[in-house]
Design goal:
The structure is a single chain. The protein contains 11 helices and 11 strands. By secondary structure, it is α/β, with parallel strands linked by helices. The protein folds into 2 domains: about 180 residues, Rossmann fold (3-Layer(aba) Sandwich), CATH 3.40.50.450; about 140 residues, Phosphofructokinase domain (Rossmann fold), CATH 3.40.50.460. The strands form 3 sheets. A 5-stranded mixed sheet has the order 3-2-1-4-5, sandwiched between helices. The protein has a 4-stranded parallel sheet with strand order 7-8-6-9, sandwiched between helices. Strands 10-11 form a two-stranded antiparallel sheet. The N and C termini lie far apart (about 55 Å). 6-O-phosphono-beta-D-fructofuranose binds next to loops. The site of 6-O-phosphono-beta-D-fructofuranose has 11 residues, from loops.
Length: about 350
Amino acid sequence: MASRLPAMRVCILTGGGDCPGLNAVIRAVVRKGERHYGDEVLGSLDGYRGLLDGETVSLDVESMRGTLPRGGTVLGTSRIQPYAVEGGVDKVRRTIHTLGIDAIIAVGGEGTLSCAHELARDGLPIVGVPKTIDNDIGGTELTFGFDTAVQIAVEAIDRLHTTAESHVRVIVVEVMGRHVGHIAAWAGMAAGATMTLIPEEPFDIGAVCESLVRRHERGRYASIVVVAEGAVPRAGTMDIPEKVFDQYGHVRLGGIGAIVADEIERRTGFETRVTTLGHVQRGGTPTAFDRVLSTRFGLAAIDAVHRQAWGQMVALRSGEMVLVPLTDAIANLKVVEAALWDDASQFFA
Ligand code: F6P
């Protein structure tokens, strides 16, 4: 049934790293916006950049056809943010005024949502949708993209098991997870990893190697060590290279897997290989679970717009779509739950 609420001109953007399910969110916003509320939906190109430069495209049900299973984002994405650009917020205001935009839906992770929070505080009509394969956004039990990334990592680790066993090797698998180890913990547990290293629990390489040696002494054992890209050694236990930053001040991660693999081979003498899954985890089609979650987030976001829930973010809590303040989302990163980590650790080595 069509809504009696006034139709609006809504602009949606996707910011930060891409993630499977972004197109499903956009499609759901467009579908309910157009068919239920009679809205006109625009897409800001490359995240906030489109709002800064006045570059948007018109979106409708027809143009979004076929995008549900497609990875990436039809709008493009970037880490550009209005507060990092001279006069950026005024530029965004000008675009909103010129194009007659009534509301903005910002789909993104930590950086994009922090910016949305500031824009809302500065009086802009904006709501957020949590996105990241890392699953580290507070306020919501899950973010879309996470399930797909775990599935991809599990499929890869299943394959690595057979080659590791044939050669009696140790294989270190580096997965994404900048600040938290949800992907590593879930993929490691689902794929029967020998050991998993996550950022929340700094590791002692000596203890890791001792466990591997004990395991291999028990018979013809191979081992799979899953390492989150943000995993760090316990202070003073191992040297790691200086951090490298990208142009937006983000630490460029990736490489800890190779360092751990070298160290394991050097200390244990076991032939060791490393596989870095990298952006493979972010590409391609979303799982059925992520398609449903993204679709529900998109529908909830357009509803939030019509409730004028500025400064709020859609979230999943106990299976329900709810609204939470963007401050909740950005206040604290969601880390791996102690109980889950305890369960995962029962299977180590
Ligand atoms: O935040 C999501 C994420 O995939 C992280 O896991 C990873 O560290 C980062 O993005 C990679 O970003 P980029 O694509 O800019 O290298």
